[in-house]
Amino acid sequence: MQIIFVDRRLARARTLTVTRMRMAMLALGLSALIVAVAAGMFAVVFRLAAEGDVPVVHSVVSSVMRAQFERNELYVQNNVSAMAKMLGDIQARLLRLDALGERVSKLAGIRPEEFNFHDVPGRGGPLAADAHSLSMRELQDQVAKVGQSVEQRADFMNVVESELAATEARDALLPHGTPLSVGFVGSGYGMRNDPFTGQMSMHTGEDFAAPVGTPIFAAAGGVVVSAELHPDFGNMVEIDHGKGLSTMYAHTSHMMVKIGDFVRKGQKIAEVGTTGRSTGPHLHFEVHVNGVPQNPAKYLASLHPRAPAAGDVTAALRAHAPGDSLPPTPARPAVAAVPAAQL
Fold first, then answer.
1. Residue 124 domain-assigned?
2. 204 found inside a domain
3. In terms of residue numbers, what domain contains 212?
4. What are 11-36's pLDDT values in tens digits?
5. Which end of the chain has fewer beta carbons closer than 10 Å to its terminal beta carbon, N or C?
């Protein structure tokens, strides 16, 4: 592009050729000049506001500073509000986690003094050389990570609680305690001399000697499938615990349950007597798996909490447990059931 200058004072016209490079340099120079002038004016204005007493300048600077301060305050307030909301969510999750922890500790049998959820655990250690104060962004990231970690642990505790509850439910259906609170083992599981004939015969249960009327407790929870008068076992109660496991309580004087009743572990179901083929008051207790008698000592690992002679009874159980090599006897013959109400 060419620019022609014409003037009466000029002897002849002059021509200026403008190239793209010159245009770019001219624009850059103008921009730099504008920035320099603006910076100079900005510096002069703030200097006058700081040192002088120019009301107009002071008012302008104060307005600019006030607007900047308000924007910063709004930014901080918004971030604090967001942090407060995140903190509230984490506190709610921690309360739920504490409640879950207490329930799980109870299911797991942990004593409160061993693991207190309300005490802050001790922490310590040297201060690292690269330690620094957290920025707002770093603080937000830390809070978000803590919230996510709490949620993950709460999910894990829910799974653990479910597993422990399921284990406790299964355990409630297994016979783990003696059916009597008093008494002792008078005859154990295995081969023995028959008390009436003296012949060697298989004894398919444990005999607990106790006075007439002694309460008999269910060794595990289940459904009563039999409450009848048997010619050999006398008044007998049989409880089905599921998955082929059942227990039988014989020679009772009085039955307190009927067929179809659901009983809990430790519930009183009968009283000791001497009905049926019996030489004296005692409880004949059997454990069956798929209808086959088993050694009750394998299941009675713990005793009823009210048993006064736990050590003696446990020792007697072990002394009368000859092992599992003995052949099981055939199932007892079926007889007509007599309703419990008529006994």
1. no
2. yes
3. 184-342
4. 666 776 767 787 788 888 888 899 88
5. N
Task: Find the CATH number of the domain harbouring 253.
Answer: 2.70.70.10
Going by pLDDT thresholds of 50, 70 and 90, the confidence category of residue 176 is low
Closest to 273 (Cα-Cα) out of 229, 306, 240, 311: 229
Owner of token pair 């069956």: 288
From 82-86, 106-110, 134-138, 325-329, the region with the lowest mean pLDDT: 325-329
Q: Look-up: residue for tokens 């003037």?
A: 7
- Model pTM? 0.46
